[in-house]
Write a structure and sequence with these properties.
Layout lengths: L10 E3 L4 E8 L11 E7 L3 E3 L2 E2 L4 E2 L2 E2 L5 E5 L19 H6 L3 E5 L19 H15 L11 E6 L1 H11 L7 H6 L12 E5 L5 H12 L4 E2 L8 E2 L2 H21 L20 H23 L6 H8 L5 E3 L4 E3 L2 H7 L18 H5 L12 H9 L5 H16 L1 H8 L18 E7 L7 H13 L3 E7 L12 H10 L3
Parallel strand pairs: 8-9, 8-10, 10-11, 11-16, 16-17
Antiparallel strand pairs: 1-2, 2-3, 3-9, 4-5, 6-7, 12-13, 14-15
Helix pairs in contact: 5-6, 6-11, 11-12
Bound molecules: 3,4-dihydroxybenzoic acid.
């Protein structure tokens, strides 16, 4: 566990101008050792030779002891994932290294991981616990590593965006201690981070089905995705979609989120397409479009011709006066621009054998239902859809009445750890970016996260990024600008 013994393993990457220590096992009690590894990449100036820190080295005004550390988890689809390599197509390391930051990519167990005996070992909260274990390991070894381990910036996308959020809001939280101990984490060290960059987070899974129907309910057809094959809603699904949408309105109103500037409580009207909560989401989408169009105009040599063309091709639903954008309404946006991706239900799947069902399973019961709201919704349809009720209800009921199970599910829901007296050592800084063309979850999910964090007094930079699909939705380099800004304060 002592990186002092790893000096000979460092090597220099000429193309990337960085020192590398790759494929390091971060726990001696690894149950899936192929995945529980990380790689460390260090800009050249902070190292003299293999594993020897250059105390005089400087880059972009930083030195080896004060430079921020970007800690990117590679979690995707809640699956087991290895850390990234610099030459992976999706690896964003270079932008961080070019700014002089230390960059660490971390692997993790996931929903399908098995130990050496073939037993499942990556269910909730293993993915998060691995990342916390890795951070403790890095802190323990900081003497031998360039970087300021009080300036860890967590980064992640999608399931990794969920993990990045959770790493931040559950820092050092006792809920995870038994799991950390079992995972061989260094219990004397801390796992909190300084800030979180969160891309397209797939969070609040207990309510994500509700949000999805509120958002995409007008569209009766879904694409093929990991949540199911392409299809058209059955009458039962249409009725279920309406019930889930109704429940989302109730859930959203109970969140009592506040407008970050005016403090007004945000609500949804009974129709789901009115009220200050609805207007706030539409404002976010319109700001996203306006930001995109302004940049497009500024980058044009030919007086906005391409911008005008862009807008005119979307004139059924998008207006632009040169400054502000206006979107007609959310249903048209969905039907004309970003159609629904997932079926109804989208997360806690009716046949119970998809992605998220697998995340919350146990070794003996690999797929489970986890949304009481979906269970109750099916129950309300007992009279009108007796056959579907018979087919689906009991398995939802059985899985979701179990209190211990509900506790396990809650370990992956950051909304439970913000502003409820249940906080971990949550940092001050959050940057949330979500594609305005992302239909993996409702846009309201990350909006609610941003609002909850703001209310808890956090510094939140939240925006939807126009035309960007599910992924690292961002304008080039802006994440680095944000890191500079929050780390150069003192
Ligand atoms: C991811 C995408 C999803 O649609 C989902 O439900 C869970 C995870 C992902 O890309 O990580």
């Amino acid at each position: 566990m002592e990186l002092v013994n790893f000096r000979e393993k460092w090597f220099y990457n000429e193309k990337r101008k960085c020192w590398c220590l790759t494929d390091v096992l971060y726990t001696e009690k690894a149950m899936a050792p192929e995945y529980q590894r990380l790689s460390i990449f260090v800009p050249k100036p902070y190292m003299k030779e293999k594993g020897v820190i250059d105390e005089e080295g400087r880059m972009n005004g930083y030195n080896a002891r004060n430079v921020p550390v970007v800690f990117e988890n590679n979690s995707a689809g809640y699956m087991q994932m290895k850390h990234k390599w610099l030459d992976d197509g999706r690896c964003m390391a270079q932008q961080y290294l070019d700014c002089g930051f230390v960059y660490i990519s971390c692997g993790n167990r996931g929903k399908e991981s098995v130990d050496e005996h073939g037993l499942l070992c990556g269910k909730v909260p293993a993915n998060l616990v691995d990342l916390k274990t890795a951070i403790r390991f890095l802190r323990y070894n900081q003497e031998w590593l360039p970087g300021n381990y009080e300036r860890i910036i967590s980064v992640g996308c999608s399931a990794g965006g969920a993990m990045s959020t959770l790493l931040a809001v559950t820092g050092n939280h006792r809920d995870y201690e038994p799991y950390l101990r079992e995972n061989g984490a260094i219990m004397e060290e801390r796992d909190d981070v300084y800030a979180a960059q969160i891309y397209c987070p797939i969070i609040d899974l207990e309510h994500a089905d509700l949000a999805y129907e509120w958002n995409f309910g007008a569209d009766r057809e879904n694409e093929a995705s990991h949540a199911g094959p392409a299809g058209v809603m059955t009458p039962f699904q249409e009725a279920l979609s309406r019930e889930l949408r109704k429940r989302y309105i109730r859930y959203f109103n109970n969140l009592k989120l506040k407008h970050p500037q005016t403090d007004e409580i945000l609500t949804l009207g009974d129709d789901g397409r009115s009220g200050s909560g609805y207007s706030y989401l539409m404002d976010c989408l319109e700001n996203s479009a306006a930001d995109f169009l302004r940049r497009k105009k500024d980058s044009e040599v030919s007086d906005g011709i391409a911008v005008n063309q862009y807008v005119s091709e979307r004139k059924e639903w998008l207006d632009w006066d040169g400054e502000q954008a206006h979107i007609r309404d959310l249903d048209i946006y969905v039907l004309e621009y970003r159609r629904r991706m997932k079926p109804c239900t989208a997360f806690d799947i009716l046949n119970g054998t998809c992605n998220e069902n697998e995340v919350f399973g146990t070794a003996g019961h690999p797929f489970i239902h986890f949304s009481r709201e979906v269970a109750e919704s099916i129950q309300t349809l007992k009279e009108s859809f007796p056959q579907e009720y018979e087919q689906y209800y009991e398995s939802y009921r059985k899985d979701t009445v179990d209190e211990a199970q509900a506790q396990r599910v809650s370990l992956y829901n950051p909304m439970n750890y913000i502003g409820k007296g249940r906080e971990g050592n949550a940092p001050d800084y959050y940057r949330i970016r979500v594609g305005a063309f992302d239909a993996d979850t409702s846009w309201a999910v990350s909006m609610a996260l941003a609002l909850r964090l703001s209310e808890a007094g956090k510094n939140v930079d939240y925006a939807l990024v126009w035309d960007q699909p599910h992924g690292q939705a961002d304008y080039p380099g802006e994440v680095c600008g944000w890191i500079e800004q929050i780390c150069r304060k003192e």
